[in-house]
Amino acid sequence: MTQWFAQGLIRAIISAGGGTGTHISTQIMRTLPMGGWSEADREGGPLYDPQSARVFLERLERDLDPRIEVRKVEYHINEQDFAREAARLMDQMLRET
Fold first, then answer.
1. 66 vs 28: CA distance, rounded Å
2. Residue 28 in contact with residue 69, Cβ under 8 Å?
3. What radius of gyration do the chain's Cα atoms show?
4. What would the DSSP string read from start to end of 35-61?
5. Which burial class, exposed, middle or buried, applies to 15 when counting CB atoms under 10 A from its CB (0-12, 13-18, 19+)?
6. What is the pTM of this model?
7. Could you give the CA distance from residue 60 to residue 20 in angstroms, rounded to a whole number?
8. 44, 68, 87, 93: least buried by Cβ within 10 Å?
């Protein structure tokens, strides 16, 4: 994963989730697909680089507003199991409000 791509993705995720200094009036959760973020970074894909992915996720967690809950899910973002888990977590959040 190239450094400029990772930095841009971190900025986009943080700003979409109400980055540090932004008022958060509702529960926000980021679900991180530990198996990869795109077809290109799947094992065997042209951007597959587990070391870069690990550094990216560490930096994202470090820079994300601490009021935002982070859930790591051991699936690739394009797997049905990831979609099911994301839907389950969203349903749980909605029931808690």
1. 10
2. yes
3. 14
4. T-SSGGGSTTSTT--HHHHHHHHHHHH
5. exposed
6. 0.65
7. 12
8. 44
Q: Locate all alpha helices (DSSP H) within the chain, ordered by sequence.
A: 3-16, 50-63, 80-96
The token pair at 61 is 């967690």
pLDDT of residue 53: 84
| Each residue's pLDDT tens digit, 61-90 | 888 888 888 899 999 999 999 999 999 998
Place of tokens 């808690």: 96
Please write down the long-range contacts of 37-43, taking CB distance under 8 Å and 24 or more positions apart.
37/9, 37/77, 38/77, 38/78, 39/78, 41/1, 42/76, 42/78
